[in-house]
Amino acid sequence: MAAYPGTETERRVPHETLESAVARIFAACGMPDACARLLAATLADADLHGVHSHGVMRVPDYAGRLTPPEGLSAVATKIAGVRGGVNPEGRPRVVRDAGAALVIDGDNAMGQIACDFAMDTVIERARRTGVAFAAIGNSNHCGAMAWYVRKAVAADMIGLASTNALPTMAPWGGADRIVGMNPLGVGIPAGSEAPFVMDSAFAACARGKVVVYNQKGHALPPGWALDRDGLPTTDPAAALDGLLRPIGDYKGVNVAMALGIMSTMLSGAGYGTRLGNLDDGPHAGRDGQFVMALDIGALTDLAEFKREMDAVIDEIHRSRRAPGTERIYCAGELEHETALAYRRDGIPLNDETLSDLASTAAARGVDLSDLLEAARGRTNLSI
Amino acid sequence: MAAYPGTETERRVPHETLESAVARIFAACGMPDACARLLAATLADADLHGVHSHGVMRVPDYAGRLTPPEGLSAVATKIAGVRGGVNPEGRPRVVRDAGAALVIDGDNAMGQIACDFAMDTVIERARRTGVAFAAIGNSNHCGAMAWYVRKAVAADMIGLASTNALPTMAPWGGADRIVGMNPLGVGIPAGSEAPFVMDSAFAACARGKVVVYNQKGHALPPGWALDRDGLPTTDPAAALDGLLRPIGDYKGVNVAMALGIMSTMLSGAGYGTRLGNLDDGPHAGRDGQFVMALDIGALTDLAEFKREMDAVIDEIHRSRRAPGTERIYCAGELEHETALAYRRDGIPLNDETLSDLASTAAARGVDLSDLLEAARGRTNLSI
Question: In order of start, what are the domains of chain B with their CATH numbers?
């Protein structure tokens, strides 16, 4: 399990148990059952693929945005950092239809509800038009891009997805946080090989990693961050007070800007600083995304395309490795294999995440005993 | 002229003179006049914007691909590295039309002829469908991406363009050249500000820069290149024998792969190593590209969009600068200002480029006296 080395405080839980437990929490936040299940599925799916940063560790934050626990005063709510603001019953809908390009109003639902609807819509549309694009506004945090592009892959299409993100970078040569790291997801079907699935942001590292380095008192690798004046730093505290560094300097920041503009300005969402800032978080309903699907079979022979993809991936596997590299993965391959293993052996969750889930559930009167029971004693050391 | 510091052997030539002189060379290579003028315009436009790597310095190579000079034997042609193979009379056409996604057969014309036709076609289509995408096959080198996306910008659309490129990178952790740096162009209209125009490849630097460092005997900056075993190097000779390093490590190589796949596999073009290799060059007619246009006005209020773009660009200009940065440019802004200055003062060309143009013209009986006359004595020192 290269992606997620085990620790003694890590427990394994079955994928289905995790998903249904989290769905109950979101249902208790006022979400209709189908939406609660969808939101839970997207988060559990990220954990299943080893992408825990976008998994169920987000549940307390999301639950707070959806609806603060009952009984908390406005002051207590503010202190607890649970701000509400997201519409648990939001129903996204198409508000503009230009034939193959659409605008979708997320109705201030969680971004997952809006983007999943959007990807379904563009997949359906691309069956008629070859390609379809949707800009999504009035939206919120939407989790990992991989979920959406995998839906396109399952429909034998190339999928693209991107989202605006809170600004953590400066334009190249600058010192102010005004550009998000705005990730891009791309999914491309293969034949017998795992599909090509990339999901990357355009900063050199995630901000969460800098937080961990800071907690542990370790210096950052060079090239990850800039201080508040825009100068390179390896001090994680200076980086947290400063900026993440874009990959490829001006190149990465330009790609991030383009993705951010396309994610927001076509749908009335808030680009960059208009979404919010790191200190106060995002304004509810100001986030934006875009998704796109390209129907391979409408342009070329699908089976031949998949054979060529297999050949490209095989060429990677057969290529020479640099010293120290045991194996070369194509994009998404490690996550694909992780998902197979975790589906079989259970998903590792650390005690902190389990405990956060338990308290979020308890505050809303949700019974989580099945999940906690499943986790009890199932540390990954026993597997 | 920050983009292109002058030297004593640099001459200024008027944009129109350069463009029409180069058009005569391409016409003498057997291209129909309109195609010769278009190809010349794309190259002169790159020089006009200060992007000389994709400008008229490519003329000898292109002329050789289009048609070797008369009188050369097959052996002499091979020795001179002029291989022909590109169809000077190629007429690109739509061969598959799925509504908003198209496949275009470049008829083995120069990539500029195919891609310019493709961008015109998707712009026209996007007026009806909101978005349109074209995959281009049976194509060749297509120059800078910026030309195509600026056409979309001129039509008040967001433009995207990408191309497959000869493999210069390895998958991350690898040591074999099997991935191109496959550039992405994005153009987004603004109001009173210059449009957002990015055109970047996903290697840390251009291979031509490594060549220059090698010629001068300078060490490369760290992070630019890997040796033939896939290990970091600052030795330009080892880099030329090895690999360019992707920006953001696995991130850059994944983006490049996705762009390369979308540029080739939907249109029967040759992905990666199937296009050719650095030693032998590309196989004629095996290159591929894609272009896309997104009609802003079909999705949102165009004037409001442009106002927002102006505000985003203004925010960049007003933002704090890192020490040592005199001015922060938005993507494409420096090139925009360079074009204004060069249109007024002439385009600087060094003696080597002028001399290459002269000999390429002479070998085909083309009179270049107007260009050489214009250049004579007009070094940039006199301006």
Answer: 1-67+333-383 (1.10.1530.10), 90-203+246-318 (3.30.1370.60)
